[in-house]
Amino acid sequence: MKSRWNWLHQWASPRWFYRRSGACIPWCAVAAAGLLAVALVWGLAFAPPDYQQGDSFRIFYIHLPAAVLAQSVFAGMAVAALVVLVWRVKLADLFIRAAAPFGASMTALALGTGAIWGKPAWGTWWEWDARLTATLVQFFLYLGVIGMHGAFGSTRTGGRAAALVCVLGALNLPIIKFSVNWWHTLHQPATFTLTAPPAMPAEMWLPALVAVLGFYALFAAVVLFQMQSEILYRERHTDWVRRLVDGAA
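The structure assignment produced for this chain is given below.
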């Protein structure tokens, strides 16, 4: 039991995390490139067209993974925020700082591709639909987290303020998820659920699954790299960073 807790404490050490995460970044980047290339070629060129929407449906292979990441990244930030507020672990704050811009970009991509898809499907670029509105709120919550980190002179104060926004903003996630079931909405119900098989043939949903995995690998590569950069900046006055910089020089 003691060795298990020591392992967890190691992951809370910026120095230990920097060294271990550096080995993961190339693998995540290669996985992201490979999975996204396969998914986009498969989905855009070889998957069959939708029987109602035709080829306009193919934007699904970008819209779905962006929407999934937009929600799951914020959920991960909310968990990290609890760690910041309760245990004050610096790496959890670094994760929030690194993940927020990525999550905001995924939310913007989901909204943008949704608007492009909505024009032929619904006849309008935008509708104040429950899910669309809640997703727009989530985009502003991401911007709020990013803004809180830079709004205070103290890194610690900014981190705790951003963590509070994450915890409170997590209340919006169930609204996004279940809005299509709670209210009459233009947005279609969930394509994938844990209690029912996918509502489309395998040759259509498999490339979507590969795209989601590719986006997660991209998220891991980007966030780990950003966390490493932030660790070097925050720990720049420590001996281990000085030795690292001297060795690189």
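Interim note for the steering committee: The radius of gyration is 20 Å. Residues 25-237 form one domain.
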